[in-house]
Each structure stands twice: as C-alpha cells, then as structure tokens.
User: Fold this.
Amino acid sequence: MKTTNENNTLTIFLEGRIDSNNAAQTENEIMSALDSAKAENVIVDTKDLEYISSAGLRTLMKLRKAIKKPLPMVNVSRDIYEILDTTGFTELFDVKKAMREISIDGCEQIASGGQGKIYRIDDETIVKVFCNGGVIPLEYVKEELDSAKAAFVAGVPTAISFDTVKCGEYYGIVYEMIDSKTLSKAVFDEPEKLGEFAGKYAQFMKDFQDIHVPGEKFRQARDIYNKKIEMLKDWLNEDELAVMHEIADCIPLTDTLIHGDPHSGNIMIKDGELMFIDMTEVCYGPKCLDNGAIFRDLISAAQSTPQACEISMGLSAELALKLGQAFFAAYTGITDPEKLGEYLKTAGLYCAFNISANCGAYAAVNEMARQKAPYIVENLIRGILIPNKDSIKYLISSQ
Assistant:
C-alpha cells in the first residue's frame, strides 16, 4: 500500500480490489501506517481502486472510528461511488468523485467570454473551459456549477449542468447542448432581425427579473459588491473606500434574482426561446445592476473598446451598440430618443459602479486588469461615482 505523510496529513492510496481475500491484510497495513505517521489528518485516495466489497468497507469503518473525525475519500470513480452510495457510505464519509478528463482537440468553439471558451463536445453536450487569464481555481468553477444547478431548480431558464471536468491544465463545466447559437451569433448571422432579437432579449430579461426565490439559496448582491469593493484598497484611500461601501450598502435585499453578466454572448437559443449560460455571478439583487451590466457590454464597451467587444460578444462594435440601444428601447418602452438618452445616462451610472466594483476582483487574478485599475479608479470612481454618490445611492435604493 502506498502512503504519503505531508503537512501533518496522511494520505492512503487504495489500489486494485479489496475484498474478503485481502481485507484483513489491508486493515493491518492501514492501521500500521496510521500508528507510524501520527498525522492529525487522514485522506483516502481511491483513484486506482477498482472494487471494494463489504469486507473492505468494514475496514474503512474501523479507520473512521480510529481517527474519530470525518474521513475524506477523494478521486472516487463512478463505480466505487455507486458502491458507497448504495451502502449508505456517502452519508458517513466525505466522498469526492474523481474529476472526468476530456479533450477539446478538434472540438468546435461556439462561444467565447471573459472567463473562457465554450466548445461543442457532441450533439448533446458542450463544455465551458475556464481558460482566460490563467488557470481559474477549481473552487470558483464549482461555485458556478452550484449556482447553475440552484438556478435551474428555481425555475430560471438555463442550461442543464452536469459536472466539473479537467481539460488539459484548465477546469470546465459540462452543460447540455442548446442548439448551436448564442444570441450574439444569431444577431451576427441575421442582422436584419436585430429588432426582433432585441425584443425577445428585453422580454426574456423582464421575465427573469420577476422570478422570486424565497429562502437563502443565493448570495445577496450587496454582500458580493462589498466584498469586491474591499479589494480596491490598493488604489483607494479610506474615505474613497468608505464612499464605495456606502453605495453598496444601498443595494436592496431582495428575493429576486440577477444574472450578473447577462450579455448576448451568455444567452443561447433553444427552439426559439432564450436561455442563460454562465451562472457564476447569479445572486439576489435589483434589476438595475443587470441593466448596468448590459449597458457595460453592449454600449460602453462598443464605444470605448470595440476590439474587446468583438472578442467577448462575438459582435462588431456597430452591431453591439445597435443591439444595446434596441434592447433598452424595447425594455423600457421609451420611443422618444431624447428620453431614451436620459434613461441610458442612468444605466451608465450603474455601469460605472459595476465596472468599478469588479475592478479589484479582476485585478487580483489578471495582470491586464491590474494595469487598467488606475485608469478605472481615476475616471470612474473619482471622476463619476464619488462626485455623484448621493444620486447613485438614491437610484439604487429606490429599485
């Protein structure tokens, strides 16, 4: 039996088959390793375990009693998990399934976003690979998976999510295949239908923003924004940081959901109906924050960073701007250009707050974002948000 003893943690690697023929020997080796290591923590790695009988399971029970604390089991294959689940051991042990490894070599890339790329695996599934800005931590990826499953159960129109996987050095999430087009791709392919798509997009967002999910299944936007704002302390003084927290504290506590990043590249079409993908930032919050995010990606980005807009949205800056303007016209019902312009100024304030709050969080994991941080701080936080803090606080709190 292989074992390692590092950082006060004994890892026991189980291999092959454990049944009545070798269970006693396995038990002796485990207990001997436990006595010798005198480690505070124990982990059982079952990556190479092919089968375990009831005799082997009783050996694990003795180990659990000996260490007098929950016993983590990692890299558990589907076959071994089925045995553990059938016998009730998944309730007695901290069981973590082995992560599937899949190859995207030769797979068609069907979308791209700020965090990664989406590939078609087969006719029924796609994979979102978190490959932008370096290797994104597994905990972050699992957070999206948990949010996606919770949102689906709550009735949010979103793709069915399956599991986390490894794609080379990166992590990914497997989702059901929803046709072949994002909303961005549909607009790109049929620009003459932009008005029709914008109307569907607006109604889709309004329907989503009317969904109530009682309980505490999701985080509150107020808490998320405050956490992100705290990460701006490298660029803001205490007074400036306090103003940003003042604004965040005005975000209403609610049981309605926001997506957090509802741009047209994160929406796919199934049988003519729209459906969300990329559920990392879904949370409880007021609709103005989602509207600010749409303004950010379809209007502000189209005007300020057209090349980045094309990469992330899959749309030319011109098409993105037209889609954004048509979306807000359909969403608000405002037909007068001057009045719509006034509404867009308000959406621009929400956009500035969104970009500023995310600045520190992105800079923590992405060098390019860190280089942009001083510009955002000077032009958005000091140039727009702080001078207009009372107006922004009123607008957000009245949602």
User: Anything to note?
Assistant: The domain at 2-98 is CATH 3.30.750.24 (Transcription Regulator spoIIAA). The two ends are 61 Å apart (CA to CA). The chain has a mean pLDDT of 90. The longest helix spans residues 337-363.
